[in-house]
């Protein structure tokens, strides 16, 4: 099966598992993004059809929420907290360092498809600012050196 | 018998390496042929000491911290399993002043128990509230909550009992209990700590609410940034369901309450209750007009109790010990305790649950230990990104909803973020507008357009362009947002903006006495 077939399969699976729940759209979108990393464009009409919604409505929901993405992410998603508590502890410098080190801006992915960089507004780790999340792991009191080390570890893990 | 060793599974502890420490202890113990029983508890909330390891001894639980994996062999060498001396030894956990001086009601079990062990929960007074509630009528349960004086801990501070009473008295074929776990405010993490450290107390609180008002379905709307909380909640819900504390015929009472966790998707505005309900219904999180109140037409158009995590998690102790017990804590019209979260530039960041009335200064210096950087604390933002900035001259204010309202400030969800004297308050005002622009749902014009114009106006003030006119324009714009926005996002963004301008005019290129301009 091609990647596209696998993606289609994942979309169908999420829809058939969850379409009968009340308020099923967000759970379905989460299901799809959990398994393939983003919501592919060709999933929109399939979801719309299954939930008896217009494509515009489904598109509107996907684009409303910062968490849902329409393009494939890199192998690792790096989120750096931009909120006040982390600002008070130097997140702006850390963010600049990350952008320079990876050579990308927010909402971009490195050329080798390794890292996607995203802003995030609070990880609930405000007692250990500045905070960073790499995939599902949160890190606290992150210095620029520590960030580089974490990125290197992530890069090694995917080799 | 193997020694019990506690290593937290709380996200913040994990963010500092708690998993690696737990693994190192296991490896070292097996190397030495010693049997240890590692329990992954919630965090005690003394985050500068995390990863904090506790060992159960005959004298009580002895704490060591902050522990790094490389410290572990040395801890074994010094017999930490029997409470041995070591540079990281902190003594009896319960005797550490930061913890000892608190009044932990809602957080009574957090850090003490294994979060997903129902037996542990029951052994520490768990489900006593529900058992009592099952002997009472719905109206009696609601009255107990009303009598406690509990006000919504999400930030709006609306009396919880009154909300419940409206749902109780609205007839419908279906009602809902919704827990707002979209804890998006910077500087707040008490919801996360409860969900990760004592999930059963939230489940119990929601079950009591359901039984009281006749709601059979509950949802916890959890932000997507909290994957660990999701895991712990789902684990605890599955246990409660298996043991008859959720589902059909709860504890043989014939009452039904189902509970499900739903994930948000990174929209700050979904912490606003009507926007949250839209999101739960599978739509864009667009704010609704009120009325109708959610208590009358809420989720799927049905009567709905929507409460913050801490409000619901405070219900079990109120039902267990009575409304009067809870009401006896606090001051004025702020009754009970508030789990305060110290964050930002402080030496000792952490969770401090205290009765209302403690002053900001006590929290910043006695608990927080002053700034982490060692520089003077210049400004403190209380109540999240929509909360006012307070200058040093206001640090003696007691934590009380009305005292803060008198200063044109808010307590919000109890988050306190400290900044040292390197902060640029014009920059923070700009950030407040920018955040509002990023997170606005777009329904009302003052918030949607006002926030973007706000960023531009602050930029002009910083650049010194037509200075006096732009300062006036910022005030006018703030007035429009304050009075014309549909919800607190646009309506309260002026709090950080104007408080920064009024208390720190010098950062906006004004002289100190020019603030009335």
UniProtKB/TrEMBL annotation, chain B:
Keywords: 4Fe-4S, Iron, Iron-sulfur, Metal-binding. CDD domains: TRX_Fd_FDH_beta. The gene is fdoH. The keyword 4Fe-4S applies. Belongs to the complex I 51 kDa subunit family. One of its GO terms (molecular function) is NADH dehydrogenase (ubiquinone) activity. This is Formate dehydrogenase iron-sulfur subunit. InterPro entries: NADH-UbQ_OxRdtase_51kDa_CS, Nuo51_FMN-bd, Nuo51_FMN-bd_sf, Nuop51_4Fe4S-bd, Nuop51_4Fe4S-bd_sf. It comes from Novimethylophilus kurashikiensis. Its cofactor is FMN; [4Fe-4S] cluster. The lineage of its organism: Bacteria, Pseudomonadati, Pseudomonadota, Betaproteobacteria, Nitrosomonadales. Residues 426-471 form the NADH-ubiquinone oxidoreductase 51kDa subunit iron-sulphur binding domain.
């Amino acid at each position: 099966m091609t990647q596209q077939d696998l993606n289609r399969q994942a979309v169908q699976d999420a829809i058939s598992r969850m379409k009968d729940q009340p308020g099923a759209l967000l759970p379905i979108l989460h299901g799809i993004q959990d398994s393939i990393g983003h919501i592919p464009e060709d999933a929109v009409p399939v979801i719309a059809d299954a939930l008896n919604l217009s494509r515009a409505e489904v598109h509107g929901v996907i684009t409303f929420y910062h968490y849902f993405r329409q393009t494939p992410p890199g192998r690792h998603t790096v989120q750096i907290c931009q909120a006040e508590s982390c600002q008070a502890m130097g997140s702006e410098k850390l963010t600049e360092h990350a952008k320079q080190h990876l050579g990308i801006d927010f909402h971009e992915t490195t050329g080798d498809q390794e890292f996607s960089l995203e802003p995030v507004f609070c990880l609930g780790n405000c007692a250990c600012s500045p905070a960073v999340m790499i995939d599902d792991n949160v890190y606290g009191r992150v210095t620029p050196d520590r960030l580089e080390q974490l990125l290197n570890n992530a890069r090694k893990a995917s080799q | 018998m193997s020694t019990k060793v506690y290593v937290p599974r709380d996200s913040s502890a994990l963010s500092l390496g708690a998993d690696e420490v737990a693994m190192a202890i296991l490896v070292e113990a097996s190397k030495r042929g010693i049997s240890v029983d590692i329990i992954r508890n919630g965090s005690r909330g003394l985050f500068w000491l995390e990863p904090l390891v506790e060992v159960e001894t005959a004298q009580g639980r002895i704490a060591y911290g902050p522990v790094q994996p490389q410290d572990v062999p040395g801890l074994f060498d010094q017999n930490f399993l029997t409470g041995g001396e070591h540079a990281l030894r902190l003594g009896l956990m319960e005797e550490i002043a930061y913890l000892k001086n608190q009044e932990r009601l809602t957080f009574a079990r957090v850090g003490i128990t294994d979060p997903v062990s129902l037996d542990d929960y029951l052994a520490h007074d768990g489900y006593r509230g529900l058992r009592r509630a099952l002997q009472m009528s719905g109206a009696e349960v609601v009255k107990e909550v009303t009598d406690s004086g509990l006000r919504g801990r999400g930030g709006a501070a609306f009396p919880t009992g009154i909300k419940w009473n409206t749902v109780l008295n609205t007839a419908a074929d279906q009602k809902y209990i919704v827990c707002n776990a979209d804890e998006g405010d910077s500087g707040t993490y008490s919801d996360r700590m409860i969900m990760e450290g004592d999930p059963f107390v939230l489940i119990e609180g929601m079950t009591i609410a359901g039984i009281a008002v006749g709601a059979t379905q509950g949802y916890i709307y959890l932000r997507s940034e909290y994957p660990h909380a999701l895991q712990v909640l789902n684990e605890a819900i599955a246990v409660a369901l298996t043991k008859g504390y959720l589902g059909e015929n709860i504890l043989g009472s014939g009452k039904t309450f189902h509970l499900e966790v739903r994930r948000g998707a990174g929209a700050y505005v979904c912490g606003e209750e009507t926007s949250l309900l839209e999101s739960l219904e599978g739509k864009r999180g667009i704010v609704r007009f009120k009325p109708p109140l959610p208590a009358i037409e809420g989720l799927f158009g049905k009567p709905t109790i929507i409460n913050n995590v801490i409000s619901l998690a405070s219900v079990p102790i109120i039902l267990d010990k009575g409304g009067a017990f809870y009401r006896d804590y606090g001051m004025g019209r702020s009754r009970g305790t508030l789990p305060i979260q110290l964050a930002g530039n402080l030496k000792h960041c952490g969770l401090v649950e205290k009765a209302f009335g403690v002053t900001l200064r006590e929290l910043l210096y006695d608990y927080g230990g002053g700034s982490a950087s060692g520089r003077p604390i210049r400004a403190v933002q209380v109540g999240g990104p929509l909360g006012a900035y307070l200058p040093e001259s206001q640090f003696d204010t007691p934590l009380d909803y009305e005292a803060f309202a008198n200063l044109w400030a808010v307590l919000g969800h109890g988050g306190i973020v400290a900044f040292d004297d390197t902060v640029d308050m014009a920059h923070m005002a700009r950030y407040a507008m920018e955040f509002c622009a990023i997170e606005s749902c777009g329904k009302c014009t003052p918030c949607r357009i006002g926030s973007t114009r706000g960023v531009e106006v602050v930029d002009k003030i910083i650049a010194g362009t037509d200075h006096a006119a732009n300062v006036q324009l910022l005030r006018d714009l703030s007035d429009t947002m304050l009075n014309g926005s549909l919800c607190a996002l646009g309506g309260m963004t002026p709090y950080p903006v104007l408080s920064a301008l009024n208390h720190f005019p010098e950062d906006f290129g004004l002289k100190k006495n020019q603030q009335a301009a």
